[in-house]
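re: ur question from earlier - yeah i can do the single chain one, its not a big deal. heres the input i used so u can compare w yours
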Amino acid sequence: GTPELKTFYPGDVLCTAREIITLWVSRMVMMGQYCVGDIPFSNVYIHAMIQDGQGRKMSKSLGNGIDPLVAIDSHGADAMRFTLASMTTDTQDIRMPVESMTLPDGRQVNTSPKFDIGRNFCNKLWNASRFAMMNLDGIDPAKFDKALLMLEDRWILSRLAATIAEVTDSLEAFKFSEPMTALYRFFWNDFCDWYLEWAKSRMQDQQQKPIAQNILAFVLDQTLRMLHPFVPFITEGIFQKLNEIAPARTLLDLAESSAETAISIGAWPARIDTLADAHAEKEIELLQNVIRTIREIRNNRNIPPKQALTVSAKAPAENVEVLNRNAELIMQLATVDQFEAGESTAKPSNAAVGLAETTEVYVHDAIDVEAERRKLNKQKLQLEKNKAGVEAKLANENFVNKAKPEVVAQAREKLTELTEQLDAIERHLSELTD
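and the output i got, formated as C-alpha cells:
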C-alpha cells in the first residue's frame, strides 16, 4: 500500500509520503544527469517500516529504536544485514522485538534477539566453509570425471540448480526474504547437514576424492556468490581463502565458474538448469526419510548416538532397489552397521518400528514392549483422525463434483496411503508380546 502519512515539505507544502519520495528521486536523477550525464539509478525500492515488538514505530521519544552501530558491535554487520533482509516482506510493517542491554562501559542500549538468527547463520557459514576447504588439499579440476558422479553428487547439483534459479528470479522481482529462505535451506540443510557428511568418507577413496572435492569447491563457490549481496564481508573473506586453496572451481564438461580475484567483482552464478535431476532428488528424499526415522527411534529410546544399529526395512519393490543400492549412505548417517530392505521383510519380534511414508523401518533389539504399544496407539489415533478427515471430504458431493479432478485424485491417494499405514500399525500392535 502507499503510505499516506501527511508531513510538511520545505516551503510549507503539505505532501504525502509518496510525493516526497517522488520529489527526492526526481532531484537525484536531475543531479546525476547534470554532474555525470547519466541517471544514478534505474530502480527505487521502498521497504516496509520497522516497528518494535508491540507494533509501535521506532522513535527517540519512545526510546524503542535500535542503533545499527550497536547491532554491528554486538552481532556483526553481516548478521544485521542477513536478519533485516530475511525480514523484508511485501507487508507494510516489520516487527522486531526490542530488548535492553548493558554495554561494558555501563551504557543502556537497545538490541533485538532477531539478530541472533543472522549471527548463527554467519557462524555456520564460516565453520562449514572452513571444514569444506580443509578437505580441498590437492584438488585438481582435471581429475573430475562426470561419469563417476554418485547419487548424492547429482542430488546436490540439482538442488544447487534449483536454488540459483529461485534466488535469481526472486531478486529480479525485488523480493529479499524469499532468496534468504532458499539460501538458508540449501546451505544449512542440503549442503551442511547432508552432502558434507556424505562426502567425508569419500575423501579416503582415491578414485572418489577428486569428484567430491570438485563438487565441494564448485557448490561452495556458487553459494558464496549468491550470499554476497546479503553478507558481503564474510563471503569476501571466505572467497579469498577459497581462491588460495582452489583457484579453479569448475566441473569439467559439466558446469563452469568464472575466476575473479574478489567476489565483489565476481559474476553472478549462471543458471545450470541442465543439472536438474528430479529422479535423484526423489531417491535422496527416500533415503533421508529412512535416516530420519532411524534417528527418531534412536532418540526416543535413548540409544547412544555412537552405538551401531542393525536395521531392516519392508518397502515397495521400487523403493527396495533404491534402498539396497544406497545402503552405504543410510549406514553412514544413521550409524548403522547392517542394513537390508525387502518387499516381504519380516519384522523381528524385538524390533522398534518406524514409518517412512510407505517404508517400514525395523531397528533390531531396540524394543520396550509397553512403550512401543503406547507409541503405536498414539500413531493409530492420529492416523484415524487424518483418515476420517479425508473420508469426510470425499463423502462431500460438492467437493467431489466441483473440485479439480487432480485434487480429488490426490485425496483418494491419501486415503489409500492412510489406510495402508493404519493396517501396518494394527499388525505391529498384534505382534507385540510382553
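The chain has 14 helices and ten strands. not sure if urs matches, ping me
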